[in-house]
Design a protein that fits this description.
The protein is mainly alpha-helical. The chain is built from 5 helices and 2 strands, in the order ααααββα. The two termini are 12 Å apart.
Length: 76
């Protein structure tokens, strides 16, 4: 389980990328809104998943779907 200090060490850019994808429903739209490339947003999510050791999203056609872990992590 994570503590508050664990989350304080998290690079906020990684969380913003994840949140932008969740809000928009797609990496491409999150990239457009964030003025980043799709590759940069995907990398932010991968790095966040690596840091947490969990898969947060699954790619589904042209969009994304939160995994069980993504749904649990999002409110934090």
């Amino acid at each position: 389980s994570w503590t508050a200090s664990d989350f304080e060490r998290l690079d906020p850019k990684l969380f913003r990328g994840f949140l932008a994808v969740v809000r928009s429903g797609s990496v491409s739209e999150a990239a457009r809104i964030s003025s980043l490339t799709q590759g940069a947003v995907s990398q932010q999510i991968r790095l966040l998943e690596d840091w947490l050791g969990l898969h947060l999203v699954e790619r589904s056609g042209r969009g994304i779907v939160l995994t069980r872990w993504g749904r649990l992590y999002l409110p934090r």
